[in-house]
Structure formats: C-alpha cells, structure tokens
Design a protein that fits this description.
alpha+beta; 5-stranded antiparallel beta sheet; HATPase_dom; membrane; two-component regulatory system; phosphoprotein
C-alpha cells in the first residue's frame, strides 16, 4: 500500500521540484534585471543632484568678489544697499537665501533682510561651512536652517577670494523641488549623508531617519553643529541598510541598491518592492498547481470507478448493519431510561443542597452579626460610664458610633441575604484606604479586648478600585479579627495591614505573629465550618465567606507563612484602570429568573 501511494505522489512531486528550479532561475534573472534598472536610475538621480550643486556653486564666489555685497564687511555693520543687492541676486538666481557673514560668523547682510525671520544680526559661526570658508576653503554643508527650520544645501566662499579672509559669502539652495520630482516619479529613492542620516527622500516619512543606529560620537557631532535641529534621527529599519540586500522598512520588503554621489560623502539609495522582482514566479507556480490538480482529478475519476465496484459488496452487507442498528435502538432506549432515573436523583440532591444552604446561611448570619454586636456592646458600656461622669460630648460621639453600627447591621443583614446572590451588591469607585479605615474602626474593640497592637501601613496616594465597599469591609473585618484572635495568646501580639499597588492590582497583606497556619491545613482553611480556633468559639465561616466575596469581586484571597512566625493573608483586587469586563459583569444585578 505504501509503495502504491509513493508512485501516485511521484508525478506531483516531480512537478513541484521542476517548478521550484524554474522559480529560482527566473527569480535570479528578475533580480539581475532590477539591479540593472536600479543602476541606471541611480546614475540619473546622481546627475540631478550634482547638476543642482553645479548650478549654484559659482554664486558664492561671485558674491564674495562683488563689493556691493561685501560693503557691509568694510563698515563692520549691516548696510541696506548690500541687503537690497543680495535680495535682487536671490530673486534672479533662484537661490533660497544669500547672505554675508563677518569673521566671527555674524550675518551683516542677507537677502531676507525684510522678512520676520531675517538672518541679519544672527551668528552661525558654529556651522561647518563657515569654519571651512573662513579658513580659505570652499564650504559645503546640508542642514536644517537654525532660524527658518527649513532644510537646504549651504555653499560658502571666503571673501576676499585672495588673501586672508575677513568674511564669508553663503548661498542656501532649496533641495525641495528635487525631492518633489522624485516623489512624482513614483519610485522609492532617498539620499543619506556621511553619517547615514536620510536628508532627501521620495517618502516624506523617511526623511531625517537613519539607515542604521548612530553612535554616541556621531550624534554628539550632529547636535553640536545643529545640523538636523531637534529631529529624533531614529533608524528607518531594524537592520542596517546595505547595498544589494533585502531590507524591510515600515513592514514592507525591498530590494536595495546604492551608489555614491561624489559630494560630501552622500549616498543614493534605490529601493524596489520585492513583489516586483517576483512577478514571473506566480505563473510558474500557478501552472504547476494546475497540472497537479488535473492529475488529482484523473486519479479521483479512476478511484471512483473502483469505489462503485466496492459499493456492490457494501449493499450485500447492509442486511447485517440493519440488524445491528435494531440492537443499538434497544440499547439507546435502555440508556434513556437510566438517564431519567439519574435526573430524578439529581433533583433530589438539589433539594438537599438547598436545605444545606439554608443552614449555612443561618450560621453565616450569626457569625457576621456577632462582630458589630460586640462593638455595639462596648460602645453602650462606654456611653453609660461617660454619662455617669457627666461627659455628654463623648457620650454623644459614642451614640453616633452606635447609630452607625446599627445601620451597618441593617446593611450587613441585607448583604448576608445577597451571599447566595452576589450579583446584587452595588458597585462603585472608591478609595480602598477609606474602607480599610472603616474596617479598622469596627475591629478596634476586639484588639483592645485582646491587647493586640494593630498597625496600618497605607500609601499616601489613593488606591482606587471599582467594587462593593461593604463587602470589602466584611472581608477586612473578618481578617483583622482573625489576626487579633490568633495573636491574643502572644506576649507582644501584633497585626500589621499593608496596602500597595502591584502589577495593576491592589494588594492588601494582613500579617500576624501568631502560631500561624500549618501547611497541611492551608488548603482547608477556606472551607465552610472549618476552624483552627479551639477556645474562641469560631464557627469556621469567616474565611469561607471572605474567600467567596473576594472571588465574586474579581479578586483572590490566599494565605502563606509569615517570617519569623505567624501567617499572612493576602487579598488582591483589580485596580480601577485594570478592571475587566468579566468582573464588572459579576457585580451587575441578576434577573429574577436567576433567583
């Protein structure tokens, strides 16, 4: 059977192999054609750049020789006649700017002397073209204007042209029209300087990005000369752009060719999308796939004839299948009967669970109301003593606390009713620090009774959560009272509550120095009616209720060992900015049908 499959698959495999070889050959030919075209286009673009340079190269030399332009240097101050002459020369030559600087780089005359961003009086002695020209050399530099914030090619000559220079004549050439012509041509071409910074590009988004990351020294040099103002100069690609390599820019692959301009270390880059180098590949693969499909159709037709012969034998066996089907129907009916009996048993189990839930709820009511009742008894006793002493103000304050506790007991009764329907709690945006302080006030009598110290470590910034505040207070009161009970027998019992933001969650830690929770009991500590208390009469519901409340609010409650002794209960709740849709959905009221 395996040999037969091999012979069947051999023709398609040969077709694919032949197509692969043809694709490699055609792709090499296409790439060679693209490289030839790139070389031709690079030569043309190089000539346009050099032509633009040669077009204006003579101009600073002429200005440096003309006394009408350099008269300001002799006077040492701006002269209107020199400004007007430079303005007329700029209009006639098409240059963007013409200006003359003195020996320290201060501009004394400029063609834009009447414009708001006039160069007159501004110092550009930090520019490399000025430094080269003032030393008697020809200055050439491409940069963004320090005043106009517009890019251009700066060409400079010393004046006088013979002897010691006392000033510099400068022409700024706008390379924008050249760049616009590249963009209109529809081709992808750009020019980079000696440092690898793209300063001319047919794609405006690539301008002032780099072909590879800049070193610290190069970036410092660029910043010192303010060549590209405040541009970020981020790499245009994750990989260095080198000649005749495939590069990926902005998620698109290109075949890259480059050529030296022969001016200021500039390099021209010509990119062709990779898909254009693979236009001939698709027909080859389409032909190969078509032939494979034709072959597959022929094989299927022949196989269909064989299957028709096989179907005759299958019809002969259908009688046996009918008999088997009859037996299966009987088994299905028997299974249906058993499933109905199981369903009835499940209904009985559900009734038993509801009765168990009623018992658990009753115990929960006793457990949850005992906490505020204990606080209420202490406030009543204190009020009586204050009244006996005539301290009516303190007694009035205690009455306010008593009224607050009775209101909390009413709300708590309602919340315990919602224990079986957690979705009915009211969700609001709160500062968790307020809930912590409220819980501390309720649990404080228990700490005073046991002599255990309670320390709160809260941040100065708000801990904003979107949750049910009363339920959070229930959890915290349970955990604080458990901590007080656990450390009551210690000589220096201490419970510490810390709260902080951590990884998008609000994390609360209640640590004590009591005997701790044995490792083999940590998984059972949150089970209903399980308690490690032997003398305090605990019912084992506080942690079970707290665990359920925490999970209903989209959080979690866990326990671990404290160092050097004791236990740490950790409550995590999603911070306000990280509340998920699922946790909000839990807090929305359920429908009556859900009851």
């Amino acid at each position: 059977m395996s040999k037969r499959l091999f012979y069947l698959a051999l023709p398609p495999l040969l077709l694919v192999a032949i197509a692969f070889v043809l694709v490699q050959l055609v792709q090499e030919l296409d790439e060679a054609s693209v490289d030839r075209k790139a070389a031709e286009r690079l030569t043309l673009y190089r000539q346009t750049i050099l032509g633009e340079y040669q077009k204006y190269r003579y101009l600073p030399y002429m200005i440096a020789r003309d006394p009408r332009a350099t008269s300001a240097l002799g006077l040492g101050q701006p002269v209107d006649s020199a400004n007007r002459f430079l303005q007329e020369m700029a209009e006639n030559s098409g240059a963007e700017l013409l200006y003359v600087m003195n020996g320290d780089g201060t501009t004394l005359a400029a063609s834009n002397w009447q414009e708001p961003l006039s160069l007159v009086g501004r110092n550009y002695g930090f520019r490399p073209y000025f430094k080269s020209a003032i030393q008697g050399e020809e200055g050439r530099f491409f940069a963004i204007g320090a005043t106009s914030d517009e890019p251009g090619l700066f060409l400079a000559r010393p004046t006088p042209v013979a002897g010691s220079p006392i000033g510099v004549a400068v022409v700024k050439v706008d390379m924008g029209p050249l760049e616009d012509a590249w963009a209109e041509g529809g081709e992808t071409v750009f020019a980079s300087d000696a440092n690898g910074v793209i300063f001319l590009s047919s794609h405006a988004d690539w301008r002032y990005r780099t072909i590879e990351p800049l070193t610290k020294d190069v970036r410092e040099t660029i910043d010192l000369t303010r060549q590209y103002a405040s541009r970020s100069l981020e790499p245009v690609s994750d990989q260095a752009v080198r000649a005749r390599e495939l590069v990926t820019i902005d998620g698109k692959a290109f075949r890259h060719n480059a050529a030296d301009v022969g001016l200021l270390g500039w390099t021209l880059h010509f990119l062709v999308p990779v898909e254009e180098t693979r236009k001939s590949i698709l027909p080859i693969w389409a032909s190969a796939i078509t032939l494979c499909l034709v072959y597959a159709v022929i094989v299927l037709v022949l196989r269909g004839r064989r299957l028709r012969k096989t179907s005759v034998l299958l019809r002969q066996e259908s009688a046996d299948l009918k008999e088997l089907n009859t037996r299966l129907v009987g088994e299905i009916q028997e299974r249906g009967r058993i499933e109905r009996e199981l369903l009835e048993a499940q209904r009985g189990l559900a009734r038993s669970n509801r009765l168990a839930a009623v018992g658990e709820m009753s115990a929960a009511v006793v457990h949850e109301l005992s906490q505020p009742l204990a606080a209420l008894r202490m406030f009543v006793a204190g009020t009586r003593k204050f009244l006996e002493k005539g301290d009516t103000q303190t007694a009035a304050e205690n009455l306010v606390e008593i009224d607050s506790l009775q209101l909390r007991m009413a709300n708590l009764t309602q919340e315990l009713k919602r224990f079986s329907r957690p979705g009915e709690s009211r969700i609001e945006r709160i500062d968790l620090r307020e809930s912590i302080r409220t819980a501390e006030k309720i649990a404080r009598p228990r700490f005073e009774e046991t002599g255990v110290s309670l320390v709160l470590d809260l941040p100065e910034t708000p801990l904003e959560v979107e949750t049910a505040p009363l339920r959070i207070e229930q959890i915290l009161v349970n955990l604080l009272r458990n901590g007080a009970d656990a450390t009551a027998s210690e000589q220096a019992g201490r419970v510490e509550l810390k709260a902080a933001l951590a990884d998008g969650d609000v994390r609360l830690q209640i640590a004590d120095n009591g005997p701790g929770v044995p490792e083999d009991l940590r998984e059972r500590i949150f089970d209903p009616f399980f308690s490690t208390k032997t003398s305090s009469g605990g019912m084992g519901l506080g942690l079970a209720i707290s665990m359920r409340l925490a999970e209903d609010l989209g959080g979690s409650l866990s326990v671990r060992a404290n160092t050097p002794k004791g236990a740490v209960f950790e409550l995590e709740l999603p911070a306000f900015s990280a509340v998920s849709d699922s946790s909000r959905a839990k807090a929305e009221p359920e429908s009556e049908a859900a009851e």
